[in-house]
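Technical note accompanying the year-one report. For the benefit of new consortium partners, we illustrate the data format agreed upon in the data management plan: each record pairs a sequence with a structure-token string. No post-processing was applied to the example shown here.
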Amino acid sequence: MGKEVNRKVNPETKTSLKIIQAGEQPPCLRPGFGFCRGCFGWENMLSAALQGDPIWQNARIHCSETGLTVTFKR
């Protein structure tokens, strides 16, 4: 089962992240890392979801390197 993160991601829409599978921070979020092969990058995926892209708002965002998997909860 997922665990809801209390921190709000976007106060305007009151959107929060729900952790489906715990894992370390994705390496692409480290300064200067770049992108992993086959990944759009967490910042890009989260930004798209917060900007209203319905595909990313409903997607399970997964890091194949660390196992972290999240979705958005409204």
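Partners are asked to follow this layout when depositing records. Strands lie at 3-10, 15-21, 61-62, 69-73.
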